Amino acid sequence: MNQLLLADVETEAGTGGAYAGKGGFETIDRVIASDSEEDAFGGGGSAYYDIFGLDRDDASTFDSIVNHNSGTDRALSDSLIRTVIYDVKANGGNTTVINTHYDTARTAIALYSDQVRYNVIGEATVQVGVNGIQTEDGINVGIRIATIYMIPMIESKDVTQDTIGRMYFLDTSDPEGSGKPRLSLDISHPTQYFQAGVDDNTPFVIDKFTTKGMYRTNGEIRCTSLNAQGKLRDLS
Q1: Rounded to whole angstroms, how far apart are CA atoms 120 and 113?
Q2: What digits encode the pLDDT tens for the residues 2-53?
């Protein structure tokens, strides 16, 4: 599931032709994109960076905040991080979590480690939820994570890497009071596990003397405020 949610749109756009949709979950990389990014990475006019049927070639109406360097990687800096955070704020967004790769998190922590007077790296406890059902606060379930400017930073090995991984600045708040976050993963059918084979005395089902299993989950990414989401890419 992580691999689907964090798939790289640039790789897809490089295949050529027009985007014809995808199976499985949509990717955060397409949800958080812009016309400028589309033009820079070969998706212009082919709909690879469009989301939910919205045409991002049409000016900047459906743009997210995307800080890119047209594919030329540059060193991660405090200035780049702050720029995205405040560009999102200028759009009325409120970054509630940053999603990035382990190597980017390591680079960010090293970036601030020598700042004695004002260290923006911290630690927080978090809650995890699906469809409105949440765990206890992290102190009770053992989930402790780093923060940057008091924003929790979630790390995943599946985040796309340029030289180091991209950073996604996600607004999962609900200031409108709609009962749904601005960005969420809506699950219509919770994960189920199916198994057949020798362990279940049903090898004839798979026609082999082995055991096979599979998971099924139905759902999709939901975003009601594209311009409240941010991406920082082309990093080293």
Answers
A1: 9
A2: 888 999 999 888 777 778 777 889 999 999 999 999 888 876 668 888 888 8
Residues near 168 by beta carbon (within 8 Å), at least 6 away in sequence: 28, 32, 98, 99, 100, 159, 229, 230, 231
SS3 49: coil
**Cα separation, 136 vs 138, whole angstroms:** 6
Q: Cα 1 from chain centroid?
A: 12
In a 3-state reduction of DSSP, which class is residue 39?
helix
Q: Which of 27, 30, 52 is nearest to 41 (CA)?
A: 30
With CA atoms as reference, report the closest residue to 67 among 40, 108, 37. 37
- Per the CB < 8 A criterion, the answer to whether 192 and 203 are in contact is no
Domain ranges of the chain: 2-232
Which regions of the chain does DSSP assign to beta strands (E)? 65-67, 97-100, 121-125, 129-130, 133-134, 144-148, 151-155, 167-170, 183-197, 211-223, 230-232
Query: 60-102: per-residue pLDDT in tens?
Result: 789 999 999 999 999 999 999 999 999 999 999 999 999 999 9
